[in-house]
Amino acid sequence: MKKIDFKKLFMISVGATFLVCGLNFFLIPNNLAVGGATGMAVLLSHVFTKFDTGQILFVLNILLFVLGFKILGANFGFYTIYGALYLAVILSLLEK
Length: 96
Known about the structure:
Elements: H1 6-27, H2 36-47, H3 53-72, H4 74-95
């Protein structure tokens, strides 16, 4: 793996924070679902009420982590895991 780019990590964090704010303050309260793993997590959180959206999103992303490492390489996979974990954790914290 190449050297970690902290500017890239910061930008991923900023983008994921904006996404979490949009999800938590607009999409989830209005029962709107977006596409991809995040949309699936929003839908499944209404079915499986014991789990919040962030927890479901983390589980759905596990498969994507494996694919990211195998297909796109370890460097890209690392940033993917960081972004997905950051998104899921911040979403879980804000939902509580």
